[in-house]
Amino acid sequence: MNPTPSAPRRPRPPVGGYTANDLDRLPNLPPHTELLDGSLVFVSPQDKFHMRAMRVLETCLLQAAPPELEVIREMTVRLGLRNRPEPDIMVARAEADTGLGQTSYQPADVILAIEVVSPDSEARGRDTKPSKYAAAGIPHFWRVENDNGRPVLYVFELEPATRTYAVTGVHHDVLKTSVPFPVEIDLTAIERRR
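Given the sequence above, the corresponding structure tokens read:
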């Protein structure tokens, strides 16, 4: 009789929770593990809407970003000792590139953070992560939602006195903006197979 394989062993949290440096040291973490308030957050598999939204946004941003900025997909931002969230896409200063072994960015280097909200990440994508990005001083935040198969993109800008985001636009078919740099994105492309 073959023994039943044991379930994967989850790391045991240290007293006080994990730190930002632990994400680089813990063995066998699932891809795209985040750290929020000292707790590890394991990301569920993406749905097709999420994948297409990321592809369309990344492609358009890569084409529009000036050379002094870099478009980065699925890397973490160190927001202090106990927080290292992973935006779906971010735009950072190219000078912050430390090489191919780099695993995170500092918030001062991030110009734009983007979250594509999934059913399992609504609270994190709408509340937890944006409030942390704003408190860290990231000047621009975009949130993409699936409204019955139709994308809705919310654009936020940092209000520096309160370190909170203010909505500057809600876009359904096309996003056209001049900040943080000029870009036009056909959001209906998320609905179409390419």
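The mean pLDDT is 93. Try to locate this feature in the token string yourself.
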